[in-house]
Amino acid sequence: MENIYNELHTAEILNRIENLSPNSKPQWGTMNVAQMLAHCSAFQDIALGNSYPPRYWLGRLIGRFVNSIFYNDKPVPHNMSTIPTILIVDERDFITEKEKLKQKILTFQSNGPEKCSSHPHPFFGKFTPEQWGKGIYKHLDHHLRQFGA
């Protein structure tokens, strides 16, 4: 399974981000491409330990039982609900958000598992650094597929 800690997987994701344009249209969902990039950056902030969204009651109840969504080779289902604090609804600048996301991906990858957040995922709960690495790749892959990249 792909993992953002793997330099080849990181390079592949960065290349796919480069293939996006301000005119890229979603195949599902409501975010435009700049909002999606900002959303992915906000998710990176959680894994980097720069943001600490609270655990949600439903996640506390069933999160650890359904976290297998992230740890298989199947794509994430379309239109899955998101963490409310990282749902982006305001307008964003494509170039700014694209560069910001690329930098956060590179920072996370270069920091390595040792510097990964120990704060629990807001829905799924406690993640190991390995789970964060796989989950980040899968989250980015999901949204890049959303925009045909």
From TrEMBL:
Gene3D superfamilies associated with the record: dinb family like domain
InterPro entries membership: DinB/YfiT-like, DUF1569
SUPFAM superfamilies (alphabetical): DinB/YfiT-like putative metalloenzymes
Pfam hit, one: DUF1569
Name by which UniProt lists this protein: DUF1569 domain-containing protein
